[in-house]
């Protein structure tokens, strides 16, 4: 199943690359301090990659926090279960 997902993502990337290469219209882009003329395909590619990277950082950070919390809770559970087992033996 994982291989199918990877193949689908690669196929979508190649289709987007083929369609983007056909769109070489120059657009005027006004950003915060200045403006510039860019190819539309390049501009869309840069914005997509930067958005993907930002999302990867945000959700990766959230995932790491949750994994650390799970690890701490499992450690706490093991400690408490050992205390209960020791109390029941006594």
Description:
The protein is mainly alpha-helical and 90 residues long. It has one domain. It contains two helices and two strands; from the N terminus they run αββα. Strands 1-2 form a two-stranded antiparallel ribbon. Strand 1 (26-30) and strand 2 (35-39) form a beta hairpin. The longest helix is centred in the C-terminal third of the chain and has 50 residues, at 40-89. The protein is elongated and about 80 Å long. The mean pLDDT is 89.
Write out key terms for the chains shown:
single chain, 90 residues, mainly alpha, two-stranded antiparallel ribbon, elongated, Probable lipopolysaccharide assembly protein A, cell membrane, LapA
Set out the fold topology.
Blueprint (H helix, E strand, L loop, with lengths): L1 H21 L3 E5 L4 E5 H50 L1
Antiparallel strand pairs: 1-2
Q: What is the number of E strands?
A: 2
Describe the strand arrangement of the main beta sheet, using strand numbers.
Answer: 1-2
- Overall pLDDT: 89
| Termini separation | 51 Å
Outline the low-pLDDT stretches.
none
Structural class category:
mainly alpha
Q: What is the overall shape?
A: elongated
Number of helices: 2
Helical percentage:
over 70%
In short:
With 90 residues, this protein is mainly α. The protein has helices at residues 2-22, 40-89, and strands spanning 26-30, 35-39.
